[in-house]
């Protein structure tokens, strides 16, 4: 019994142990990793990841996947940039229109998946290329510059000593947790991921909920794209390239089952931190970018393998007889 309890405790707190181990490792092998300034840098870097991961959590909990989050963020950044620079639109209005455009892109993803009966993985793989292509069409492959100085506050400002993007991320992740844990919509999301057909037979409009979650994912990816554009003070057609990989890795590391129906968004925050600490530490150690991709790929495969093995173990565990 004690061994079983120790095993369960280890599984429960594995994500914290991994995060602590990474911090200790990088602190030992890099000079300035363990410093307040670097931790603020990590916090600012993971803000975009945490915002988009909140939307991705909803999608994965339904047993789906959204590969277009990076392209949505990039295209939204381009749209916002073009509106401000080429059309002279006020930054507040430009940001509002751009986020709405991101929501529309997410709605398109969800609608194609719903009405065409396509797996979301295929739908978003296609729209990922489409949205990225529009980035280059609108800019001819060139960055867009010339923003008002005030626009930089979104991605580079502070409230006291806390970076403004971190505050945005925190609020969004709290609202995401409230949505999943305290509303009917959250219960529907878990039900769809657990058994979509049973959820439909119980009266849940699975298609409408799915479209709504993809729309939300698009809007949140748009916010992440706006923050990146503000940080760089330019609209980059190649912005957020590969971003979806980090988002999915953070969500799976956070304990959200890739098969849907299991996991808590609270733990996704720690998955986001692990990806952020890992990326920052590897850069500070001057690890080649190609090796970084290999390491992150190994981590993602390991996380999915752990989830699969854990599910298999639970399925094969002897059932307790009812008392």
Just name the CATH architecture.
Orthogonal Bundle
Total domain count? 1
- What is the CATH T-level topology? ABC transporter involved in vitamin B12 uptake, BtuC
- Please tell me the overall pLDDT: 90
Based on secondary structure, the structural category is mainly alpha
Number of strands: 2
Helix content: over 70%
Radius of gyration: 20 Å
The run of helices and strands is HHHHHHHEEHHHHHHH
CATH class: Mainly Alpha
Task: Name the beta content range.
Answer: under 5%
Instruction: Kindly report how far apart the N and C termini lie.
Output: 20 Å
Give the strand order, joined by hyphens, for the main sheet.
1-2
Number of helices: 14
Q: Biggest sheet, open or closed, and with what strands and sense?
A: 2 strands, antiparallel
The low-confidence parts are none
Q: What would the principal axes of the Cα set say about the shape?
A: globular
Q: How would you sum up this structure, described in words?
A:
With 323 residues, the chain is mainly alpha-helical. It has one domain: ABC transporter involved in vitamin B12 uptake, BtuC (Orthogonal Bundle), CATH 1.10.3470. Helices cover 75% and strands 1% of the residues. It has 14 helices and 2 strands. The chain has helices at 2-12, 14-29, 36-61, 69-85, 91-116, 120-139, 153-156, 164-182, 184-194, 196-201, 206-232, 243-253, 265-284, 289-316, and strands at residues 158-159, 162-163. The protein has a two-stranded antiparallel sheet with strand order 1-2. A hairpin with a 2-residue loop joins strand 1 (158-159) and strand 2. Helix 3 (36-61) packs across helix 13 (265-284). The longest helix is centred in the last third of the chain and has 28 residues, at 289-316. The radius of gyration is 20 Å and the shape is globular. The two termini are 20 Å apart.
């Amino acid at each position: 019994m004690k061994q079983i309890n120790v095993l369960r405790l280890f599984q429960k707190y594995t994500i914290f142990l991994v995060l602590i181990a990474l911090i200790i490792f990088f602190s030992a092998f890099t000079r300035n990793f363990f410093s307040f300034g670097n931790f603020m840098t990590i916090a600012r870097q993971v803000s975009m990841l945490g915002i988009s991961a909140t939307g991705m959590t909803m999608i994965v909990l339904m047993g789906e996947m959204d590969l277009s989050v990076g392209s949505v963020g990039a295209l939204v950044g381009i749209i916002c940039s073009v509106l401000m620079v080429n059309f002279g639109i006020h930054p507040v209005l430009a940001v509002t229109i751009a986020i709405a455009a991101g929501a529309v892109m997410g709605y398109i993803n969800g609608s194609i998946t719903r009405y065409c009966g396509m797996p979301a993985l295929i739908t978003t793989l296609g729209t990922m290329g489409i949205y990225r292509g529009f980035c280059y069409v609108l800019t001819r492959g060139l960055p867009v510059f010339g923003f008002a100085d005030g626009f930089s506050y979104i991605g580079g400002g502070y409230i006291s000593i806390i970076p403004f993007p971190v505050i945005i991320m925190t609020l969004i992740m709290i609202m995401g947790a409230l949505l999943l844990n305290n509303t009917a919509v959250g219960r529907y999301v878990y039900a769809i991921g657990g058994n979509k057909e049973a959820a439909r037979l119980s009266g849940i409009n699975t298609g409408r909920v799915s479209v709504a979650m993809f729309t939300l994912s698009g809007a949140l990816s748009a916010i992440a794209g706006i923050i990146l554009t503000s940080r760089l003070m330019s609209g980059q057609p190649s912005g957020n390239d590969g971003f979806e990989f980090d988002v999915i890795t953070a969500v799976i590391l956070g304990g959200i089952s890739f098969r849907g129906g299991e996991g808590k968004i609270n733990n996704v925050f720690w998955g986001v931190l692990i990806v952020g600490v890992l990326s920052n530490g590897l850069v500070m150690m001057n690890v080649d970018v190609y090796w970084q991709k290999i390491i992150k790929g190994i981590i993602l495969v390991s996380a999915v393998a752990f989830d699969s093995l854990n599910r298999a173990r639970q399925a094969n565990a002897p059932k307790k007889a009812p008392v």
